[in-house]
Amino acid sequence: MRNLRQGRSTRVTISDVGAAAGVSASTVSRVLNGTAKVDPSLAARVHDAVRQLGYRPNAAAQGLARGEWGTIGVLVPNLANPYFPDVLKAVSAVARSHGRRVMVMETDEDPSIEHDLVEDLMRSCDGVLLCSPRMERSDLVVLTARDHPLVLLDRIVPGLAAPAVSADFFGGMMLICGHLAQLGHRRVAYLSGPEVSWANSERIRALEAAKAFGLSVTILPCGSTSRCGYEAAAEVPGTGATALTTYNDLVALGAVARMRELGVRVPEELSVVGFDDIELDHVAHTSLTTVSAPRGQLGKQAAEMLETLMTEGHDGEPVYLPMELHVRDSTAPPRMAGELAG
Amino acid sequence: MRNLRQGRSTRVTISDVGAAAGVSASTVSRVLNGTAKVDPSLAARVHDAVRQLGYRPNAAAQGLARGEWGTIGVLVPNLANPYFPDVLKAVSAVARSHGRRVMVMETDEDPSIEHDLVEDLMRSCDGVLLCSPRMERSDLVVLTARDHPLVLLDRIVPGLAAPAVSADFFGGMMLICGHLAQLGHRRVAYLSGPEVSWANSERIRALEAAKAFGLSVTILPCGSTSRCGYEAAAEVPGTGATALTTYNDLVALGAVARMRELGVRVPEELSVVGFDDIELDHVAHTSLTTVSAPRGQLGKQAAEMLETLMTEGHDGEPVYLPMELHVRDSTAPPRMAGELAG
DNA sequence: CATCTTCCTGAAAGCGCTTTCTCACAACCC
DNA sequence: GGGTTGTGAGAAAGCGCTTTCAGGAAGATG
After folding, report:
1. Count of domains in chain B?
2. With a 7 Å cutoff on the CB, does B4 touch strand D?
């Protein structure tokens, strides 16, 4: 069989190195991997040969022979949302400390390609980390049944055979509701995130539960970007809400921008609350009241879970990481009816 | 030899599929890849078997046998900068259209790990795309000499045997200088990006050249984040500059925030100009005058160059993509000395 | 009806590496 | 000194796939 890499010059193989160093390929492998004792003088010759020939082991061949790739795959919905880079940094750090590379893929918020991408990742990674997967539960069941190490981040599905870590979105939204109720708000609106987002439904679940605080909530379809927030916010004044909750900070910021244009003062006439607490130091026009997601923690813990799953093969209970309320400049008590004229 | 994947249940191989379908492995391969005509009834049996067994081809084995991985690797300095996700989206689109996966790695602005990461990518990808690499020219020379398809994005190094595409940073900064000069500014400050950034030195080169317009420039060390901008901006008033240029929009936004805190009005007392024109719709506190980098174009073109390089093996001249000036709210004519009291 | 194509299919080799297995040699013990 | 153990290096098998090669069954031809 001929060299298949048409056009490319012949690659240096481990045998070439062996030949140059006057030893067998096995010995080269042993030297390079430190898997067995080798005569120091031979080892030196091998290292020299490696350097001279510019040898780099072929990852595919190693993967095949070792039965593992040394890579973990991460799927994220959207890199443009600052939430995910933060998670990724933490994941990468953990992966590197275990000597693994990270392969990132983005779905661009298109749930229909998620399944394929995950399959792809499974074919070329030792383990897969799914960040906020939007796919349906049934798809997730199929994937987790594949018996391939897989961890979920920011999506908990009861009864699934995969470990999961998530920010406690429900708790986070409850915190927000408590804050708003305490300020005296009664009617709130919610700019809803992607319909297929579990994180979104958790927020909604909390909003429903918050009826116990005496809050009544209007849900408005929106999305996950500032542009969505800007557009959907036009509907808010019509709802009679005195406070606006949102799917995330970006949406909230977009909404605030629209409110300003419409002449609605924030927070005097409308309180607006974000979600996630993304880092936008000195960039955003408004210092949002929001809840913070422990992104670094999430990434770290998910990556460690995955590592455990890959090496030891056992998994634990879903873990919820608490969110924290940060009260800043975008919330205030509602204006009383009598004040409206003022 | 035993199965090396300790702990994991036996994986389904192509032979298993063949056995189940009552054909040889070769036939399965042919059916799955469509590389040769196969009796439709056999093909159907194969497809059934694949479905039943949940077979997924092992990417490493395929890579080894085919001599290619079906993957391109992209190295970016920092995912948190919205610039790169935009590029990545375009790259991914092109890669997918050629049936390749994209593997993303981030250096976190640490030039010292760049070299290793690139080596890693080369070992497991058909081609590598380096976005704004910070490494020294000499390192780059070593890497490009590796005879592995490699394309540079936003870094042009004369005499390098690798194709390159870049935004025309020099031209972009010239546009800015022209705009400022035309407004009547004479003294400008520049918040400099990472020292090791070629993109930064291009901006500086333009700033020097702009002396011909009668501009005098003070360079202040800064960085690439809004936080850096915020911090470094404190030095600006001391320079006597009436206009501030920056490494990027994030820095500019941070600087504007600081100016406000210091009671310096933008643009009345100080014009501020960004760079890149990142998309921050309805999020940022200021609508910046800036120049736009054609991020999608850059990513697309770079990915296509890489594809050409991988398949046809030849490369072209470095390409500069023009930037465009967007005059918005952060620039204005300087106040004359006499007006200062006003 | 024998022979030559054509077409498909299975067998087998090989991609580059790791990891046995095997064996030569040396050191050790009684 | 013969037998035993231990050590380190090479040979070879095998990871799962693709692709060449060779051969059997149809179909075409004279």
Report:
1. 3
2. yes
